[in-house]
Amino acid sequence: MTLFADESQQADPALAPAVWGARMAAELRERAGLLGSLFTPALTRQLPFTVPEHERIDEATGRIDELRHLMVLRVESSPTSEPVRHAHVRMMQRYFGHAAELLNGVQEAGRTHGRYGMSPAEFAALYVPEMDAIVALRDAQLAEAEQHSIEARERSRQSLLWLAGLTTLLMALVLVMLLVIRRRVVQPLTLAAQALQAMGRGDLSPALPGHRSNDEIAAIMGGIEALRQQSLARADLERERDKLIETLREQSTTDFLTGLQNRRAFFEAAEAEMARARRHGFGLVVLLLDVDHFKRVNDQFGHTAGDLALVAVSGVLQRGMRQGDIAARLGGEEFVVLLSHCSLEAGMAFAERLREAIQAEAIDVGNGQPSLRLTVSIGLADSAHHGLQLDALMARADEAMYRAKHEGRNRTEWAGRVG
């Protein structure tokens, strides 16, 4: 499904809203079915939920709420057809209205007394039909994408017909131009060459071609040269434009001082890595680094020395990272690293190597001043203990980093350590 969705968007980027809306609806249907199945054991036992059942139900409910929010944002922010809007309203009424009331009643009973007043079959008879509205929304969005593709194909066909006609006309014009050039340029030059050859042999009998406004040929050559110069100038401008666009793109995602990714680029790349980790089940570790006493560096050595210190820290980061890891400067003297396919133990070992490497780095601040040495405080959070939500991992790592600051700096703290 992902490959087909990507191919459709590469073929026509305008399909992206409808295709991704359909994918979210499909995932919502899957999550809704999973949530319904989680109630079956408790309904069969006619007893309250167990603790694991509580956790799985809360997780499924949270993902459904997230999908609902995303789908509402998509409908409100993207132009959609009337059938899609109607299907969305119907889904909100049926699943997030009728079905939600049913689910709330079952959850309330499951969290308290366990008297549901219905069997699993009776629950399924009430719940499953309400999920049909989700499938109807998915189908409406796919139909919208299909209709857009049909219209785009028809426009392309019309454009192709126009292009074929224009190409035929252009070929006819080219043939006419060739005939004109042969009669007014090639033939006079051929006669002139024959006359020159004859004159070279001493034969003066061949007549020279009649006077044919040599300015025409000169004008053609001059026009061609002018056109060539214009084409060269335009190509130079296009190269400069492409280079400027690439520079702007790099500047929008790169920290100007350190060359690392900036905050915006990091969060985009990290969210994508989080999605891959959730899909494939591998571990992630987030490190937050803060340079100790950085204000003292600026006050004592100047802001130029502070910039050199940040560049040195970023250099140590870049040298220590593996392929697939992500490092960025969040702002000021704060850096972040996302370690992919990494366990807690490996993350702690990496953090300690990084801390020691930064401590050992001698930074030349110039002006005959002694080399500057820095230390950093590092906070670490891992997905195995803190989940695969980027905001949560960043928050836990931030708490751990501040704990490292309060406990003496130049140390690494794990977010899972109590006190």
The number of helices is: 13
Radius of gyration: 35 Å
Question: Helicity, in percent?
Answer: over 70%
Q: What is the molecular shape?
A: flat
| Oligomeric state, counting identical vs distinct chains | single chain
Give a quick account of the main beta sheet: strands, pairing sense, barrel closure.
5 strands, mixed
What is the CATH architecture descriptor of the largest domain? Answer: 2-Layer Sandwich
- Which class of the largest domain in CATH terms? Alpha Beta
What's the average pLDDT? 86
Q: Are there runs of 5+ residues with pLDDT below 50, and where?
A: none
Distance between the amino and carboxyl termini: 46 Å
CATH homologous superfamily identity of the largest domain: Reverse transcriptase/Diguanylate cyclase domain
Strand content: 5-15%
| SS-derived structural category | alpha+beta
Total strands:
5
Number of domain modules: 2
Biggest sheet: strand arrangement: 2-3-1-4-5
Order of helices and strands: HHHHHHHHEHHEEHEHHE
What does this structure look like?
This protein is α+β, with helices and mostly antiparallel strands. Helices cover 71% and strands 7% of the residues. The protein has 13 helices and five strands. The protein has a five-stranded mixed β-sheet with strand order 2-3-1-4-5, sandwiched between helices. Helix 2 (16-45) packs antiparallel against helix 3 and helix 10 crosses helix 11 (344-360). The longest helix has 69 residues, at 132-200.
